[in-house]
Automatic annotation (TrEMBL):
Residues annotated as binding Zn(2+) 2: 116, 151, 396
Chain segments carrying region Disordered: 63-103
Domain of life: Bacteria
Cofactor annotation: Zn(2+)
Sections of the chain in a coiled coil: none
Pfam families per UniProt: Peptidase_M20
Family affiliation: Belongs to the peptidase M20 family.
Identification of the protein by name: N-carbamoyl-L-amino-acid hydrolase
GO molecular function terms listed in the Swiss-Prot or TrEMBL record: hydrolase activity, acting on carbon-nitrogen (but not peptide) bonds, in linear amidines; metal ion binding
Organism: Micromonospora matsumotoense
Keywords: Hydrolase, Metal-binding, Zinc
Length: 424
């Protein structure tokens, strides 16, 4: 085992037990709950250990600075004690120009995998170590970030931290988002979120998020690391189907108005229409009323998650599923309403930056169907993503994985990228 692989394993083992469910082996690391708070403490300790002052942006996002921390932000003095003296600055060398931001998120979906999020943060600290060990002298600060509530698993809005920082969500709306227990985001954070911080954003010249791949493209490409080209446009649509609740034993088949039939057909249609277009459609959530074994349902609600490479394809896909569902509803005597709940536009990562990094790393370039903080930040500063191979291709599940060798290759790639962007 190489020295770097050993240090990766050591850091990884330090967080692996936090928030892991003993039964599923998956993670329950919801934003600002005990496990995620422990990981945030781990972040501060790692930053402290490296002499990197930590600042918070008032939205729950953490930033560890190698190089000048921002003045006027709430640098965490308790944790930064002893790390902001002149010797730190002397050792780090001069800093000028915008900082290079890297990092990811700690939070997980319910019973999520170990790598989605934390891999980007662990790799970022190790990449800083690599640069320092190589004697690199950044001319721009290198900043490791941990964004809050990326998955939206607790408060319902994905990338909440990066949306707040960039002003892409209304502060009052964000503050009032509530989790399943009725706790608001502002209550969990301990204060009203601060919202957009253009001054802080303006200090960043680029953002590079390293992330475990959430598909099998790198397995097929036989490469450990890739550079992202784009995030597919995607969205969520709520399909509500109303019929007539009735007795399962006494209602003749011909007399039924069963919304479950319309729902079942809609799910099959979504799958078929997505396949026809090379797109993705999923119905992973359903609510049935009254949800009784011996009752014909009165109402079935299903949520369609749809994604495609181009906005037109996505639009056509959702239209087609809706048309088929409506046609089937007429046959079943049920009523359909479709409500868009959220849509995210195509994110094309900075072509110049992606091309530069792909050439630097001799890595393949891939699009992805998954949303990320990088997708939010891409509208505000040059942004790129690195993907690390996932042998199962599975994500948002305990089966998500990455080998130590590939994670090490990811750290080396990220260190080269940071060297390229921060040291010249
Ligand atoms: Zn993620």
């Amino acid at each position: 085992m190489s020295d770097l692989a050993g240090r990766f394993r050591e850091l990884w083992d330090g967080i692996a037990p936090v928030g892991r469910d003993a039964d599923s082996g998956g993670y329950l690391r919801y934003a600002l709950t005990a496990p995620e708070l422990r990981l945030r403490e781990w972040f501060r300790a790692q930053a402290d250990h490296r002499g990197m002052p930590v600042s918070e942006d008032g939205n729950g996002n953490l930033f560890a600075w190698w190089g000048d921390p921002p003045t006027g932000t709430q640098a965490n003095d308790a944790h930064a004690t002893g790390t902001r003296d002149s010797s730190t600055q002397d050792r780090d060398g001069p800093t000028r120009g915008g900082a290079v931001l890297t990092g990811s998120h700690f939070d997980s979906v319910p019973h999520g995998g170990a790598y989605d999020g934390p891999l980007g943060i662990v790799s970022a600290f190790l990449a800083v170590d690599e640069l320092r060990a190589a004697g690199a002298t950044p001319v721009r600060p290198v900043v490791v970030a941990a964004f809050v509530e990326e998955e939206g698993a607790r408060f319902g809005v994905p990338c909440l931290g990066s949306r707040l920082l960039t002003g892409e969500i209304d502060v009052d709306r964000a503050a009032g988002l509530r989790d399943a227990a009725g706790v608001s985001f502002a209550e969990a954070l301990g204060h009203r979120p601060a919202g957009a911080d253009p001054a802080l954003l303006g200090r960043f010249a680029a953002f590079v998020e390293l992330h475990v791949e959430q598909g099998r493209a790198l397995v097929d490409a036989d490469a450990p690391v890739a550079v992202a080209s784009a995030i597919w446009p995607h969205g969520r649509w709520r399909f509500e189907l109303r019929g007539e609740g009735n007795h399962a034993g006494t209602t003749r088949m011909a007399d039924r108005r069963d919304p479950m039939l319309t729902f079942a057909f809609t799910v099959l249609a979504a799958n078929k229409e997505a396949r026809l277009r090379g797109a993705h459609a999923t119905v992973g959530r359903v609510a049935v009323e009254p949800n009784a074994t011996n009752a014909i349902p009165s109402k079935v609600t299903g949520w369609l998650d749809a994604r495609a490479a181009e906005p037109e394809t996505l639009h056509d896909l959702v239209e087609a599923v809706q048309a088929k569902a409506a046609e089937r509803a007429r046959r079943d005597g049920t009523a359909l309403t479709v409500t868009p709940e959220s849509t995210t536009q195509l994110v094309a990562f900075d072509g110049g930056l992606a091309g530069r990094l792909a050439a630097l790393l001799a890595a393949p370039v891939l699009p992805t169907g998954a949303g990320h903080d990088a997708g939010v930040l891409a509208a505000h500063l040059p942004t790129a993503m690195l993907f690390v191979r996932n042998p199962t291709g599975v994500s948002h599940s305990p089966a998500e994985s990455a080998t130590d060798d590939d994670c090490t290759a990811g750290v080396v790639a990220l260190a080269r990228v940071l060297e390229e962007l921060a040291c010249h």
